[in-house]
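hiii so um. not sure if this is the right channel but i have a protein structure encoded as tokens and i wanna go backwards to a sequence. like what aa goes where. can anyone help
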């Protein structure tokens, strides 16, 4: 299973309404540390197929989601379970 691109358009369906826990990676293409974390996130998606969904939110293209979830620095990884952010 690959990492799914998450946007404002599909966040509700693919994260909030997901039947499995979801790990969301908030990132941007210009972010050096994001490029280092990316392969690890990909590995998590493959190793946890059927147990965990993994998605990526490009904060440059989806500023509303970054603001809604208080993303102040990237990369930031956020877990969601049963439609709610796990704190």
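sure thing!! here u go:
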């Amino acid at each position: 299973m690959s990492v799914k691109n998450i946007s404002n358009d599909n966040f509700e369906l693919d994260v909030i309404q997901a039947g499995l826990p979801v790990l969301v990676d908030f990132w941007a293409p210009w972010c050096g540390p994001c490029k280092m974390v990316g392969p690890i996130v990909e590995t998590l998606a493959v190793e946890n197929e059927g147990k965990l969904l993994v998605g990526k939110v490009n904060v440059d293209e989806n500023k509303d989601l970054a603001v809604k979830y208080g993303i102040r620095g990237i990369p930031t990884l956020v877990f969601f379970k049963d439609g709610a952010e796990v704190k």
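oh and DSSP finds three helices and five strands in the chain.
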